[in-house]
Amino acid sequence: ENFKPAQVLDSLKWPDNHLATNRKLHFSIAKDNGDVHFEIHSLTGELFLSKELDYETASHFLLQVIIKDYNNSPPQNKSVFLSIDVEDENDHSPYFQDDFVVIGIEENVPVGTLVYIFNAKDGDGGFLNSKIRYSLEMSGVGENPFLIHSLYGTLTTAFPLDREIIHSVILTVSATDQAINLTDRRLGSLAAKIVILDINDNSPSFTSSPLAYVMEDAEIGFLVHCIVAKDPDEGKNGQVTYHILSGNENKPFVLDKITGVLTTAQLLDREIQECYSLMVMALDDGSPALPTMQVLTIVVLDVNDESPIFLKQLYETAVRENQDPGKFVIKVEAVDRDAGLNSLLRYEILPGSGYEKFRINSDSGEVITTASLDREAQEVFSIKGNSLHLTVLDENDHNPLFAKTQYQISVREDLEEGSAILDLFASDEDDGLNGQVMYSLVDDTFGTFAIDSLTGSVITMKALDQETKSQYMFRAVASDCSTHFPRSTTVSVVVHVEDVNNYAPQFTRVLYDLSVNEDALVGESVLTLSAMDYDWTHENTYVEYSIISGNSDNLFSIETSVVKSETSYKLVVSLVLSNTLDRETAPSHRLVLLASDHGTSSLSSTATVLITVLDVNDNPPVFSSPEYHIHVKESIPVGSHITEVSANDYNAGTNAEITYAIISGNERGHFRLDEKTGSMDLMKTLDYEVTMKFTLVIQAT
Q1: 118 with 173: CB under 8 angstroms?
Q2: Measured between alpha carbons, how far is 230 from 239 in angstroms, rounded to an integer?
Q3: Residues 227, 228, 230, CA angle at the centre, nearest 5°?
Q4: What is the pLDDT of residue 536?
Q5: What is the 3-state secondary structure (H, E, C) of 551-583?
Q6: In angstroms, rounded to a whole number, what is the distance separating the alpha carbons of residues 182 and 501?
Q7: Across the strands, what pairs with 60?
Q8: Positions of CATH 2.60.40.60 in the chain
Q9: CATH superfamily membership of 622-700
Q10: What letters, b where the CB count within 10 A reaches 16 and e where it falls short, cover 300-316?
Q11: For a Cys staple, 317 with which of 238, 330, 526, 685, CB 3.0–4.6 Å?
Q12: Closest CA to 261 of 276, 241, 246, 275
């Protein structure tokens, strides 16, 4: 096909036996062939190429050559068919449809996965000239992760892909024909960009520190930490959000899930919690989403916001009095919930009452005395700075002291045995057994008095008689109970015995029982009585009478009068009726009478008066109802019980016995009334048409 135009291809010759000298022939190509690639010399019959051939366009030509012989008359035409085969020349290079292709392949495909099929074309017609073999070359360094089949052009994975290592590969794919002569072989190529598509095969990875610090006085909203996690995946697969899974139960922190900024949501207190362990999750946006966990430790740094606190709210101890200065008292200890230098403590005693008598070691907290202590001057010290309660223990350095140097007392001669006449009291400034006082009598009182050893109460041991002995003198001793060298004090006691009103007035009878008619007149004396007093003085024997109970309605009163006799005057006492009696209201009365003398200590006695009120017929009977309405059928048989009437009389005895009678309305004798019970019965047949209603008047007597 590379034969050049105007060159003679061949020459048509007339057969030898047909040749003749000077034979005149005319050669032409039939016009209906429509082909302009060839021309023929009309006289010589030489065939030559008129324009270039293209095997790929036409590989064969069939020409009809017309030979006109002018030696005959008329001229004769003969046709010759000329078959021309065009031999292929390797004049076309293989070519791809595109110069550059971009191919995407997911990174998780297995080895051997078909990625792409390259298809190159070759315009040559010969088999070898158009037979294509493929080859592959990768730009850059490293091992090519792809293979291409030399015959089929299939691109497959040769190794596992990892987008996070290689995002894309630029390949040069070459297609070479297989011309026999190696020097004649042609090739075509294209650039292929293999983009490795991301698969969410990587979890986020934290790049920020797992340790953060924050001051405990940080305000709400303070930036504590910026959590950062990277995900080598791309797109949503590499977009990371942040979450707190645990450790934030009381929500002291808040985490921005987009930025990873961790801020305080509450005020912190290192002394309550000095460290937080937050389980933080970084989660990508792939499907499925892949998480990564990290324990974020947040250390709360100390601020000096805590006051020292003593291990005890109250320290209590004791020190004996009269000890030399420098005596160890107690060691106090305090703690400070702050940390570091903020928790280092120094001790001191604040100014206050008696503080100068003590000194504290500023480092150890040991307290010692700086002076000798006197319990009687100050028994308890309350040291400021903390609640230190110090008690000074007693030594027996004081005698008991009575309140008086001498006791004088007057007592009545009628005191009962065992009566307390005087309470002696001695105080001892010492404490405990040293200040506990016991009492005793020194002198003999002939069994008349004794003293309670614990209370100091002087009591009588037998009856006193002023006429026998009017005065007693003796000494009492107060001793402390110290087990070592007890101390004591003595005091004198004078007791004067006084005469008293010894006898109480006595009624001649303890119980008076009498009866009075209820219609007795007001002012009438119902009882005459008297009482005797065996004392001798006028005051102790003058008796007054009164009613002390049972007379709430003032029905009775007591009147006294003096009756003169031949030899003396006699006091007459009468119980007089002051108001009208009513047996139906009160059938009896129980009075308690009091007789009391005018002694300095008045004495008295009582008597009981039982009064029975006798009945008088002063109340009429009263029916239970002013009217009785009874409905009966006219067919009720004779003898039937109709009703029963009843009346009540508030009198008593025979005065209360009632008789019943029908005084009107029973003229025809239809009814009978029992005079004792008030029961009414039917005595005659009833007839509604004759009498519809009976009105009976019944009398209770």
Answers
A1: yes
A2: 9
A3: 155
A4: 60
A5: CCCCCEEEEEEEEECCCCEEEEEEEEECCCCCC
A6: 169
A7: 85
A8: 7-85, 94-197, 205-301, 309-393, 401-498, 506-614, 622-700
A9: Cadherins (2.60.40.60)
A10: bebbeebeeebeeeebe
A11: 330
A12: 241
CATH class given for the domain over 94-197: mainly beta
Point out which residues pair with 8 in neighbouring strands: 48
CB 113 within 8 A of CB 189: no
**Least confident range of 168-177, 310-319, 382-391, 504-513:** 382-391
DSSP 462: S
Contact 243, 280 (CB under 8 A): yes
Q: Cα–Cα distance between 482 and 434 in angstroms, integer?
A: 5
Q: Name which CATH class applies to 7-85.
A: mainly beta
pLDDT of residue 20: 46
User: CATH number for the 506-614 domain, one of 3.30.420.40, 1.20.1090.10, 2.60.40.60, 3.30.1360.120?
Assistant: 2.60.40.60
Dig out the tokens for 23 from the structure: 């034979």
Which residue, among 383, 381, 379, 404, has the nearest Cα to 393 in the 3D structure? 379
Token output for 454:
């614990």
Q: How far apart are CA 28 and CA 66, in angstroms?
A: 5
pLDDT of residue 379: 84
Cis-peptide, bond into residue 291, ω within 30° of zero: no
CATH class for the region spanning 309-393: mainly beta
DSSP output for 73-103: SS-EEEEEEEEEEPPP------EES-SEEEE
CATH 3.20.20.70 fits 205-301, yes or no: no
Q: Which two tokens stand for residue 104?
A: 């995407």
Write down the CATH number for the domain with range 401-498: 2.60.40.60
Region at 446 (left for phi over 0; alpha for psi -120 to 50; beta for the rest): left
Q: Look at the pTM and tell me if it is higher than 0.90.
A: no
128: burial class by Cβ within 10 Å (0-12, 13-18, 19+)?
middle
Cβ(47)–Cβ(8) below 8 Å: yes
Proportion of the chain above pLDDT 90, given as a percent:
44
